[in-house]
Design brief:
two-stranded parallel sheet; alpha/beta; about 230 residues
């Protein structure tokens, strides 16, 4: 049986990853510190999984069983969810990526890194982005830029390590994932709309309301990651 380690597995995206890899016959080990979880360790989704509740940097590779794949999803997320980490965000993300690459190299297994579409920055007009498009840092140095630049630097670290070592990797840049289990607290649009509508509250709209947003259904992005 193949073994996969999923960091942040109790989060929104992680919970669907558990279901998909379990369906494919993997034994799943989950590491999560319960900072942004959407399911609990005793949720039925986690049945037959090994669940470890701790910060991932406290998980020592020297004491770990080998894995066939590492799926690194752990990260603060959301326009509102990242605010409390201002000034610390870059350290969290980069420390975690060095940890993750160390494990992948130790076990000679693929690392899948969940990055973000935020690395592309701001565009003046709508454009269909491709992987090679320029990354644009604009505006002031708020935590959103700290988050996006740390994710981009993590991508650079991974790709450069792979040039001089046995590291095998894939990088995924999700765009506006949505679906059941997503929590509104981190500032995600659709769960906030639904929660406000069900409560009979006014629905929060920023700007003039003419913005166009594209959303990716969570099971579609998970299937892409799996494939």
């Amino acid at each position: 049986m193949k073994k996969i380690l999923i960091t942040g597995g109790l989060g929104f995206l992680g919970s669907y990853a558990i279901e998909r890899y379990k369906h494919a016959g993997y034994h799943i080990t989950i590491i999560d510190n319960l900072s942004t979880n959407t399911i609990q360790p005793d949720d039925e989704i986690c049945n037959d999984c090994t669940v470890i509740i701790k910060n991932i940097l406290d998980y020592k590779w020297s004491e770990s069983e080998p894995f066939d794949m590492i799926l690194h999803m752990a990260s603060p997320v959301g326009p509102a969810g990242i605010l409390e980490h201002s000034g610390n965000m870059a350290g969290y993300i980069l420390d975690d990526i060095y940890w993750a690459t160390e494990g992948a190299q130790k076990f000679n297994c693929p690392l899948i890194f969940i990055s973000t579409s935020e690395i592309y920055g701001y565009r003046d007009s709508p454009v269909l982005l491709e992987e090679h498009e320029d990354k644009l840092l604009v505006g002031d140095f708020k935590v959103r830029n700290e988050y996006s630049i740390a994710k981009l630097l993590s991508e650079i670290v991974i790709s450069n390590k792979a040039k001089v070592s046995n590291l095998k990797y894939q990088i995924i840049r999700p765009f506006n994932i949505s679906g059941a289990r997503q929590l509104p607290d981190a500032g995600f649009v659709l769960p906030r709309f639904v929660t406000q509508a069900l409560s009979g509250d006014d629905i929060t709209v920023f700007g003039d309301g003419e913005q166009v947003r594209a959303f990716t259904y969570v099971k579609d992005i998970i299937e892409g990651i799996f494939l």
